[in-house]
Amino acid sequence: MSNTEAPVVASNELFGSGMVLTVILRDDSPMIHCGDSPAYRSVRVDLTPEQVAAIAPRKTGSNGRQEEYESISKAFIEPNAPGHFRPEAQRRDVK
Question: Is the whole-model pTM more than 0.85?
Answer without folding.
Answer: no
